Every structure is written in C-alpha cells, then in structure tokens.
Amino acid sequence: MKWLLTLMVVLVYILHQDLWFWHDRTLVGFVPIGLAYHAFYSILAAIMMAVLVRFAWPGHLEHVEPEESLRDVEREGAH
Question: Each residue of 33-51: b (16+ CB within 10 Å) or e?
C-alpha cells in the first residue's frame, strides 16, 4: 500500500509539470486549455490528499492525552 501511495504522489507531481500546454492557445469553452487543465489538476490533487489522509495518516497523532483545564489548575493552586 505504501508503494502504491508513493507512486500516486509521484504521478500527480509529474502531471503538475504540464509542459504540453504551455504554447497551446486552444479554448475549452471560454477558458484556455492550460487553465482548464489546472482546474482539473486541482481536483485530482484534492482527491489524492483525501486518499492520503484516509490511508496514510499516522494514527498516533489521534491519541492525545487531555490537558488540564485552567480551572482545574487554579483549583489545585488554591488548596
């Protein structure tokens, strides 16, 4: 799974380098193709981040010990 996620990140990184649309003046509707490509790329990047959070988020970050509240500290100091 780790290698698959790494491959996904590398592929999305490679897709970010859109050398193929730098000199293309084609319009997609009323938007230049380079701008349309980056709009779709942004959606792809958001999906990739959701997949990474779902499958690669370090679980130990979720187990946080509760801190003492300020009121508890003040009560202990008053005694």
Answer: ebebbbeeeeeeeeebeee
What contacts 39, CB < 8 A, 6 or more positions away? 31
Owning domain of residue 19: 2-78
Tell me: the pLDDT tens digits for 58-70? 777 677 777 666 6
Q: Is the dihedral of CA 14, 15, 17, 19 positive or negative?
A: positive
Asked if residue 1 lies in contact with residue 20, where contact means CB atoms within 8 angstroms, the answer is no
| Identity at 11, one-letter amino acid code | L
- φ and ψ of 28, to 5 deg: -110, 100
